[in-house]
Amino acid sequence: MKKHLSVKSVFFVIVALCSAYPLVMLSCSKVQHFELSRFISPDTCGGCHDEVHGQWKNSMHNLSQVDAIYRAAAFHYLKGLTDADEIAEAESCVKCHTPIGFFSGFPKTVSQERDNPEKVPEIAKEGIQCDFCHSVTGAYAIYNNQVKLDPGHGEADPGTKRGPFKDSKSDYHKSEYSAFHGSSEMCGVCHDVRHVVFGTKLETTFEEWQKSAYNAPDAKKRVNCQNCHMYQRPGVPATGSTPRPQNPGTAAQGGPRRDHIYTHYFVGANMAIPGSRNDAVREEMAVERLKHAAELSIDDAKIKEGKISVTVKNTGAGHNLPTGLTDVRQMWLEVVVRDAAGRTVFSTGVADANGYLPKGSIVYNTVFGDGKGNAVDNIAKARQILRDRRVPPLGSLEEVIALPATGAKTLEVRARLRYMGAPQELIDTLAGKGKISIPAVTMAEAKKTITM
Fold first, then answer.
1. Of 38, 49, 178, 369, which has the fewest CB atoms closer than 10 Å, so is most exposed?
2. What's phi and psi for 190, nearest 5 deg?
């Protein structure tokens, strides 16, 4: 006679599994499903919120599904995988990059998006958009886009939209104040990412902020993600090292004038994608952000020993430098030392004609491993973190550099902190050489003349 588990027994088995295995834990997290018809087009929102809509349009949130670099990487990382656990991670990018598509049923996986692009609904192609964010009521967990959603029922019955004001009124939809929308947790739901099976922390932007001094216990002194990234507008970088003036205005046509309207440019460090779309405004805003994130200093106190030191200080970012998918982000130190005649006697981190860095360059990044100590270049295989050397918020890292003996009486040291969204060598592998060019930005620089 077969024995059947009671409902209570099944419950405890599930709880045990969820506690023991990251795969099951993440699978057990609640995944809601909504009919596509329940979501409203961003253009509908733009009918009243025209200024905010104009800022969002062509932002990296808007372009998250059509971003050429994201698509090349997501499709590439699926190739050649045979391990089911690794495939599960490689398929999962759509949850954050096209959330309305994911939560309404297509595409649920990267391969669906790759193999059937004609089936992706137009609204899903709009990336991270108005009705998705303003239908959020909270989160089950602050990673992997485990949001709680409560959308309306389409254009005729838009339901309740949530935001930062307690007195918002609309003739079109119900309005509700949401403290969650002003919190860093709102951003963290997508900007912290864990491997869906192994639980490896792949992106930790929220966690970095959470551990930083910007997350002050006193709410009046706390600087949330929005206090920088949603204060920025052209000419106002709004970083930790610059003023962050409020942006007075109205959230909607005919709405009350507010002391501050959160901007919706959503600028980070990505200048390549806006630049590729001839969006000079957003490209420049990304450059401004990078140029107000860090400082460099040169110390020659040990020059008698043939050493100099260069210190990189994170002065403007509320998270590590770099942040995000930091096995790909490329921030490095370029140092060139010349003698009085202008001859280069030492260099490190100088890219070649292809834009590739030489081996041995000082790079700030994360290196993932396969669980056996071997580095992997595909995060789907990331079972461990082998190295994580980045500059924490308001922190610094010192690089001690040994110089060759030259006999020179005077040396000129030039140091630059450089940034690329991804190594050009990787982009050439993903998209083909010459297809996509990644610009390099000088985030900070220092120069010192040393007399021996």
1. 369
2. -110, -25
